[in-house]
Each structure stands twice: as C-alpha cells, then as structure tokens.
C-alpha cells in the first residue's frame, strides 16, 4: 500500500479482520442474506443491520455485508484464490481458524 495513506490502510486492515470474523461467526457468501435477520445482535451489528460500524472508516453501514456477499469470508476467499479450490491447492495451515 502507498505509504502515508492511513485511511486506505485502515480500510484494508479492517476488511481482513471482517473476513476472519465472518468465518468465525459462520457467515458465508451463501448465507449472508439469511444472517441479516439473525437474532444475534453481534451478527446484526457486524452486517450493518444495527448500528453503523463503517462510519469511522468512511464506509457504508453495510460494508461488511457487501464484502462477504461478493467475496465470501476468509476461508472462502483463501480456498478460491490459493487453497483447495484453486490450481495451487495450498493447505490453510497457520491460516486455519
């Protein structure tokens, strides 16, 4: 990343955290729509249904929902790009939950 662009650095950093958190909470690209109606307030907050966690980063309140809907959680992203669903077939190893 370009040095000195702290806002972009924060967005990238928090996007990675969001991908990992989504996997930990069991939120995937396939079930993210259903999870928006969860009774779990942490999930609702995470997906932007409740509160606005994206405001501090200059993002929409549903920024995590949009990321997960389009690219999946960390496990889905890893598997598709370098893991079992890619030509590389790299094991998650230390990247596993």
**Helix/strand order, N-terminal first:** HHHHH
- Proportion of beta-strand residues: under 5%
Radius of gyration: 14 Å
Extract low-pLDDT stretches: none
Shape: flat
Major pleated sheet: none
Query: What's the total count of β strands?
Result: 0
Instruction: List the total number of helices.
Output: 5
Structural class: mainly alpha
Please report the distance between the alpha carbons of the first and last residues.
26 Å
Summarize model confidence as the mean pLDDT: 95
Helix fraction bin: 40-55%
Commentary on this structure:
20% of the residues are buried. The chain is flat. It has helices at 6-25, 32-35, 41-46, 63-71, 74-81. The chain starts with 5 loop residues before the first helix and ends in a 16-residue tail after the last helix. It has a domain at 6-72. With 97 residues, the chain is mostly helical.
Comma- or semicolon-separated keywords:
mainly alpha; flat
Question: Short summary of the structure?
Answer:
This protein is mostly helical. It has helices spanning 6-25, 32-35, 41-46, 63-71, 74-81. The model has no long low-confidence stretch (mean pLDDT 95).
Q: Helices, strands, pairings?
A:
Elements: H1 6-25, H2 32-35, H3 41-46, H4 63-71, H5 74-81
Helix pairs in contact: 1-5
């Amino acid at each position: 990343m370009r040095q000195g662009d702290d806002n972009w650095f924060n967005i990238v950093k928090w996007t990675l955290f969001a991908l990992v958190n989504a996997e930990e909470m069991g939120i995937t690209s396939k079930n993210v729509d259903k999870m928006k109606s969860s009774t779990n307030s942490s999930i609702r907050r995470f997906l932007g249904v409740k509160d606005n966690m994206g405001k501090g980063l200059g993002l929409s309140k549903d920024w995590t929902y949009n990321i997960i809907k389009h690219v999946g959680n960390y496990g889905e992203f890893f598997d598709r790009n370098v893991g079992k669903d890619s030509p590389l077939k790299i094991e998650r190893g230390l990247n596993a939950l």
